[in-house]
């Protein structure tokens, strides 16, 4: 099906927010009329709407949908047989003893027409049937060779893309024969604000710092309880994420359990608390915990592999890796809820929140705002904003020889300018709860001077200030002279 046939696609369900591209890609794949079996791999962490999307695609294309579950092999085969009999209208379900029998029955659906077969949460099946990927791979190659007109459209879904790739690696690599690989990520911060119906940019930052862009957190876990406005944020936090009677209160503690088998969960939680508290390097985390660098590095590698952490090089010290928590709710949990869990379970949440609100502003909202600024630079800033094509935006640290302190820049932008990659386009400071003015520009000038002295090409570097509450008159005057770039919360959500 060509792109010009897009108007012939079935409409997305009314309840489906966004996901237009994913919907179109999957429906086109499922309805592809050409000969030969094909395979699509769909990844997405839990609660992103992946199952809702796949079920809807199955209904729209008259496909067979099966939800994989962690169960004994015989139980999974029985469930699959029952569901397939319902789909085909068979008088009774078949009785399979091995996966190769079940796989052959699914492939047979494609002998007469394009037949979508969707297996959701495929890794859960593999956990109790480790040979299943090899069985599918062998059947795929055999059917493609012996029945070239077969038109099975097999869609396998799992968790993160990294998990999918590891699952299908090796000599029986399904990944190598896939014709479509699609990720269902959380909503970006702008889409998340629209999804929650939040128009005030500063409130949108605060809510995103708690729940991120995971769609199920609004519907399934807080029953569509949305802050009524900026003045309702504190009350909303108390009646949702800090309320033991609301499912969102318990969600973060389940995330580690859902993402693999960890040898030392206590150390995992401690590492997350350290990162949420501002320690971002392996050495800094180990020092905070009093643990060995070897043990901490191992835990960091495991959580990074499972998509719980992002690892990024320092902008000015490439050998230094910084870690940040990928899921905002997990960061909120370990910065705010985890250290105060006993008080939250025994006292009125409002009184506890009143005491710890400054911690939220400093350790959750402020660094999250800085990350949104980096996302804005890479995703939304116009070409002429930085005078080049943005490639990366990360944190950077420069030692200050005038003292023992260091100078941090929260938004260091590099990109392509005049055909040269890796050019330093901008160095910026981000302050969520602070009105920025002349001292911040002076700090940036000092930082740029140190970089120049260290041999960095700063000729095209634009000083930038990012603020969640605004800018003072001297900084506005400097902006008018073209001396600094100013990005407020409104521009973050609506401008380039």
TrEMBL record:
<protein>
    <recommendedName>
        <fullName>GTP-binding protein</fullName>
    </recommendedName>
</protein>
<dbReference type="InterPro" id="IPR036390">
    <property type="entry name" value="WH_DNA-bd_sf"/>
</dbReference>
<dbReference type="InterPro" id="IPR027417">
    <property type="entry name" value="P-loop_NTPase"/>
</dbReference>
